[in-house]
Amino acid sequence: MIPAAFDYKRASSAAEAISLVGQYGDEAKFLAGGHSLIPLMKLRLAQPAMLIDIGRIKDLSYIKDGGDFIAIGALTRHMDVEKSALVIKEVPLLAHAAGYVGDAQVRHRGTIGGSLAHADSASDLPATTLALGATYVAQGPKGERLIAAADFYKGFLESALNPDEMLTEIRVPKMNGAKWGFEKFNRRAQDWAIVGVAAWRSKDASGVALVNMGSTPILATSVSDALKSGASVADAAEKAAAEAEPQDDLNASSEYRVHLAKVLVRRALEKATA
Amino acid sequence: MVDIKVSITVNGTKEEKDVEPRTLLVHFLRDQLQLTGTNIGCDTSSCGACTVHLDGEAIKSCTVLAAQADGGSVTTIEGLSKDGVMHPMQQAFMENHGLQCGYCTPGMVMASIGLLNENPNPTEEEVRLGLEGNLCRCTGYHNIVKSVLAAAKK
Predict the structure, then answer these.
(1) Residues in domain FAD-binding PCMH-type (chain A) (predicted)?
(2) Of A74, A230, A246, A269, which has the fewest CB atoms closer than 10 Å, so is most exposed?
């Protein structure tokens, strides 16, 4: 399969990329690692007339200590997040989840910003950064703005980014030793999760988010509320799907997804509580 | 749509070509350079048959544009042997019956070399996990894993 024809421009800075996208408007898409966009283009589910390749903007590939948070450049590859000593130490849940995206070849090319901007509820990192309370930095023609992960996901493959905005940085709060669990249930190695769970828990707080339990990644606030009011892990896990609107597909009925979510939230929280 | 010029070093030789922007790296290798050792299997970045190295790392060439590889260095299965002597990984696949029909083999070998570059002494489990992006429909993987472990000892 070959994508429909398009024109191609390479941007060497975020400013240049934003100016190019302003010039070409709705016809244009940013290309980072391409591991979400190119498959869609091959299937003709996306047909941009202009691809703006941002993959070589080197100053957007970094991992830095921001004090309370770890700052990750949007063009940092999954493999670099997975193997970063800083991420492993301060945000181990994210390092672990990054290591389960696709397979090794995919992780060599795919980027964290590309995955989040693609806003696929079946991807691991949108839910993981949502559970961790991350903030995303978007840059547009008028400058930067911060978008909380909880406000970012608007619908199926739809984010709060304006067409002329680019995701430039992901700020993930340090976990400060909080324990965590990550569960990904799939039928074959390297597949998307049928249901996935990213969860962490500290002495007085928790964060639980679900993969593939609706058109957006789902923050399971009822689970955290239950834990806060003293519920056991098993009882809290029963509330796993309270915020979810799971879909039926070839792999699973919505009822089965609800069952899986409860089981996987329980398992993840047991790890985060051990 | 405007063609673009790319310059990609493939198996040590610099190749300069005009390509349509939509040209995938695998088609650039197979159709423009006639390097047909790299296979197209699923064409949806699942099966890994098209795995080559880009700047030393295993990638799926069906999901990378030739334009994205511009200026880079690509190694394909054809670039592994030196003076008629097989790469140790190729040798290990042969000695351990790591293939049957052979369709997945170029991708398996390239992914396995990439795996050992990053983890020279993997456990059996690490080999299985490390090759999760490559599908084989014949061998049941047992002898592929054996081959990679044997190559790691060479």
Answers:
(1) 1-177
(2) A230
pLDDT of residue A224: 98
Q: Which of residues 133-152 of B touch A (CB under 8 A)?
A: 133-134
Residues of chain B in contact with residue A53, where contact means CB-CB under 8 angstroms, are: 67-68
- Phi first, then psi, for residue A57 (nearest 5°) are -75, 90
In a domain, A1, yes or no: no
Q: Is B68 on the interface with A (CB under 8 A)?
A: yes
A83: nearest CA in chain B?
B118
| Domains in chain B with CATH codes | 4-78 (3.10.20.30), 88-153 (1.10.150.120)
Q: Is the dihedral of CA B58, B59, B62, B64 positive or negative?
A: negative
CB-based contact A34 B68, cutoff 8 Å: yes
Minimal Cβ distance to A7: which of B21, B44, B48: B21
- As for the ipTM of the complex, it is 0.96
Domain that holds residue A197: 179-273
Q: How would residue A189 be classed by pLDDT, with cut points 50, 70 and 90?
A: confident
Q: Is B46:A189 a contact under the CB 8 Å cutoff? A: no
Residue A243 lies in a domain: yes
Phi, psi of B126 (to 5 degrees): -65, -35
pLDDT tens for each residue of B76-134: 999 999 999 999 999 999 999 999 999 999 999 999 999 999 999 999 999 999 999 99
Contact B20 A5 (CB under 8 A): yes
- pLDDT at position A191 is 84
User: Do A82 and A104 lie in a common domain?
Assistant: yes
Q: Residue A187: pLDDT band by 50, 70, 90 thresholds?
A: confident
Q: B44 pLDDT exceeds 90?
A: no
Residue A36 lies in a domain: yes
Q: Does one domain contain both A45 and A64?
A: no
Distance from CA of B138 to the nearest CA of A (A): 17
DSSP state letter for B97: T
Same domain, A49 and A110: no
Domain total of chain A: 3
Which chain A residue shows the shortest CA-CA distance from B111?
Answer: A105
For a pLDDT cut of 70, what percent of chain A falls above it?
A: 100
Q: Who among B22, B44, B118 is closest to A3 (CB)?
A: B22
Q: Which residues lie below 8 Å from residue A236, measured CB to CB, with a gap of 6+?
A: A223, A224, A226, A227, A265, A269
Q: Is residue A264 part of a domain?
A: yes
Please indicate, yes or no, whether the overall pTM of this predicted structure exceeds 0.90: yes
Comparing CA positions, the residue from B104, B131, B102, B99 lying closest to residue B115 is: B131
Beta carbons of A4 and B63 less than 8 Å apart: no
The answer to whether residues A220 and A266 belong to one domain is: yes
Instruction: Report, as an integer, the average pLDDT of A204-233.
Output: 97
Query: What end-to-end distance do the CA atoms of chain A give, in Å?
Result: 48
Q: In this structure, are A20 and A84 located in the same domain?
A: no
